[in-house]
């Protein structure tokens, strides 16, 4: 009996070690990918991409968990899409710490960073209870996170782009930057429409 107990403890510790190694490998690759894409994509586009990736991956993970038959194939798919959703959430969270100080003006920058820290801590406090909620409603925690990510994806359309932009010192600067960006979008769309040959249309 003692030998069986020792074997079960050894197997359990081995599984915990493998789980930790998988998460660490994923975290290292996520940070490398963040650094590689940091200067290429605009801030808002990068955050929207990662939020959208997380939202879709979590939604698929919930669908696989809810509609699957519990076989090993569905378990592997659930694990893959869960890790992909975690990848998107972690990457966007890192970029938000860069994006927030660039968007908020000087007199509100500390408030913005404080609210960001508060929101992150609230999420950290609530996340352990999602496991308890899964015992009663298995699909609800993943669905809530997926809806939040997809909602953030669409709301980022109304935010200003901060790449290659001087950090604002007041709200009037932020409004002016947003007007300039909207004007540049209209000019680009007008040029694209004007460049179309009417004979080909």
UniProtKB/TrEMBL annotation:
Major location category of this protein: membrane
Cell location: Membrane
Segments of this protein annotated with the region Disordered: 176-201
Transmembrane parts of this sequence: 45-67, 79-99, 111-130, 136-158
Any one cellular-component term (Gene Ontology): membrane
Keywords: Membrane, Transmembrane, Transmembrane helix
Protein's membrane topology: Multi-pass membrane protein
Record-given protein name: Major facilitator superfamily (MFS) profile domain-containing protein
Gene3D superfamilies noted in UniProt: MFS general substrate transporter like domains
Presence of keyword Transmembrane helix: yes
InterPro entries assigned to the protein according to its UniProt record, in alphabetical order: MFS_trans_sf
